[in-house]
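can u do me a favor
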């Protein structure tokens, strides 16, 4: 019931922001939305209810017209909608907020140093600490039950050469032709993205107080998603396709348990899915 009300409350706030973005002249003349109006609109997303059920944190986004970039900050509102206040401010993107188990801190992603990193805010003081200095953007933040660790996923490139061919050393300043592009995978391009980097998504964890170098939990030529902590904090459950020829087994994922002491990964499910992609390729 609280969750439904929270979503309703956030939806109402979004409607107010959108309505207020429309110029008074447009409202008076009952005109349709124009292209320029979209640059004035704001949005609300990622609502998260506090552990005590009394507050909701959310992102409030807008468009930076000068730099043609989306921006967002964190806001918080009480469950009755009587008190709304700004938590972060700045011309950057603060996203994906998650509450600590005790409700005293919030972990979130921010691009405030021009790269996406994990940050933590103490709600009583408003202080913010940057926990990571990663080369690639993290995602899927999850607190451990005791609030001492954060799990997340990040992409790691696969730099293994496809062919064992060593080219001559390029002389300094040489203007050589671009090398050939070799493809040895099914998914190598995507609409709206173009060329896809080769690599895999893995699960990591990091100290939620001091940050530092993350510890990699998963390994292998597989992608892992949706990490969740066990109640005792000794295991992380995740979704993956850790099977031979995994890229041919699209959608045939299983649930795995990663032991945080030994890093052993054990399959918890073994289901028979629809191997449509594999069957199509075998038919040819």
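np, heres the sequence
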């Amino acid at each position: 019931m609280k969750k439904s009300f929270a979503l309703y409350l956030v939806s109402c706030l979004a409607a107010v922001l959108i309505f207020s973005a429309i110029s008074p002249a447009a409202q008076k003349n009952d005109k349709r939305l124009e292209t320029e109006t979209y640059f004035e609109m704001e949005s609300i997303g990622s609502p998260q209810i506090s552990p005590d059920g009394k507050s909701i944190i959310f992102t409030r986004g807008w468009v930076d017209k000068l730099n043609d970039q989306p921006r967002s900050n964190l806001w918080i509102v009480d469950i009755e909608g009587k008190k709304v206040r700004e938590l972060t401010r700045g011309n950057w993107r603060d996203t994906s907020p998650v509450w600590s188990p005790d409700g005293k801190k919030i972990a979130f992603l921010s691009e405030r140093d021009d790269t996406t990193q994990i940050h933590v805010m103490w709600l009583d003081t408003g202080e913010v600490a940057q926990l990571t200095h990663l080369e690639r953007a993290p995602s899927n933040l999850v607190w451990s039950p005791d609030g001492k660790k954060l799990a997340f996923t990040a992409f790691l490139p696969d730099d293994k050469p496809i062919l064992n061919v060593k080219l001559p050393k390029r002389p300094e300043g040489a203007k050589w032709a671009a090398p050939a592009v070799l493809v040895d995978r099914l998914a190598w391009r995507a609409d709206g993205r173009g060329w896809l980097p080769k690599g895999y998504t893995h699960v990591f964890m990091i100290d939620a107080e001091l940050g530092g170098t993350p510890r990699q939990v998963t390994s292998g030529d597989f992608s892992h998603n949706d990490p969740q902590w066990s109640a005792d904090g000794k295991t992380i459950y995740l979704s993956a396709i850790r099977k031979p020829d995994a890229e041919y087994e699209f959608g045939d994922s299983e649930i795995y348990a990663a032991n945080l002491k030994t890093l052993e990964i054990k399959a918890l499910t073994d289901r028979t899915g629809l191997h449509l992609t594999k069957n199509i390729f075998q038919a040819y």
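Residues 1-95 form one domain. hope that helps!!
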